[in-house]
Specification:
Layout lengths: L1 H9 L6 E3 H7 L7 E3 L14 E4 L3 H13 L4 E4 L5 E7 L3 E5 L9 H4 L6 H8 E6 L16 H15 L4 E6 L1 H12 L4 E7 L14 H15 L6 H10 L5 H7 L1
Amino acid sequence: MNVASRLQSSAHIGSCLISKTAAEVAGTSLAVALRPESSIRLKGIPNPVEAYSIDLDGDKRRAKNKLLASSQDVRFAKSKDGTTLAWTSTGSGRKLLVTPNWLRHLEYDWTMNTIAGWLPLLSENHCLYRFDGRNNGLSQRGVQDVSLNRIVEDVEAVLDAAGIEKVSLFGVSFGATIAAAFAANNPDRVSGLVLLGGFAQGVAVRSQPGIAALGQAMMDMSLKGWNDEYPCARDLMAQSFAPTASPHDQRTYA
């Protein structure tokens, strides 16, 4: 009660704070959207308290995102090896293309991927181009060649289908590697790079002891447990990708 009272006095007018401990106890029964806040020092509490702010406009935003997902004009392009790629664009303004990463779906990214909150924000002042990578979402499944070179060719295929000569690229995680590789191979078609959480080397070739074995263990766990009724494998992935997200958002993503 003391922590709750201190959090109440720390919240800005019109906002509401909840401690991480309370959110974890409530679990998935807490049917509100939460945003992580920095650790807060409270009067009379010796240690900083990790807190979330309650998103009081979450229902309105989710309804808007659902509308955006359903109103997308999804089109299709062919890569050099014949792979069919689903792509779309939203918003208006400076052109920005999001390179694909490991799990994507043009429709579900709006409504079920709770860590992709940048989608509506970027669509407000950019013409945002996105596409599902091979074996993902609405693009062709069962494709055997998922090498970096083929995925770089996929970026080129989408740009050609959209009639874009030059664009800025936004790459997240493995998408940062794809964006950098495309820019290196096609410097005349790239006006800028935004790279978030990227890496120069994959887990198979990094020098840190045990990192390759850890990556393989997570892969094996995913293959064996992805469809389990209790989503332990998906929970692990969600916690790895969004360690500071709220428990509710992590479970939704899983």
